[in-house]
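== Sequence entry ==
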Amino acid sequence: MTSPCIICVAITGSVPTKEDNPAVPITVKEQIDSTQEAFEAGASIAHCHVRNDDQTPSSDPERFAALKAGLEEYCPGMIVQLSTGGRSGAGKDRGGMLPLSPDMASLSVGSNNFPTRVYENPPELVDWLAAEMVEHDVKPEIEAFDLSHILKAADMYAKGQIKKLPYVQFVMGVKNAMPADREVFSYYVQTVRRLLGAEAPWCAAGIGANQIILNEWAISNGGHARTGLEDNVRLDRNTLAASNAVLVKRTVDICNKYERPVATWREARNILELRQVVV
């Protein structure tokens, strides 16, 4: 395969702490430094959460603004994707950063179980988040925790609630949600191609030890890949990942194995139909 592979680095998330791995970046400065290393290693998308000083998750637009500004300065051209995930806030607070007009933002279009709770994405909130993304020219990345989420995204696209061809990411390996199942993964790919077209870009994310498994499946099947300390703090059972960049380099190695060039930020912007920037 010769199509470039976009590597997304999920740098922090809402769950892992420095007690899990000291390399998890918490402060805005730590996140900028960690992302810069990952960018130089080959990542072209930064998936971003922000934290309070005590490491708890936050949806504070001011923290997001500081992080976005820093990434644009130190990672010029990199795609900035802000999270509207439900661990960081509730209701419309989850979209409080969208007026910052990041390149992208995550969008979960349906509910599902998480390890200890229900991840609630009620229809009215999904519709509001999607409308905010249209208003502020933010491309959604559809977080598909279930097959129904892919179908919902296709329906929203058909209705004009998503303006450009959806970018769907399969999330597999969350406890109580969809496990890392190869047959299900293959059906997800088939479903995206059937509903959105053979050329529709898609991505896959695996949680914990499933990260490298989903990297392999996605890259070998023409998709794009997500890695990073949000999803996985280890290289293996006995070894903590020293940085986000180390996980990105491992993903680059898988691209090389399958002779997939790693997408530059310019290529990634073209693939995802994002605005170009001058650096």
User: Anything to note?
Assistant: Residues 7-271 form a domain with the TIM Barrel fold (CATH 3.20.20.70). The CA atoms of residues 91 and 125 lie 7 Å apart. The chain has a mean pLDDT of 97. The longest helix spans residues 182-196.
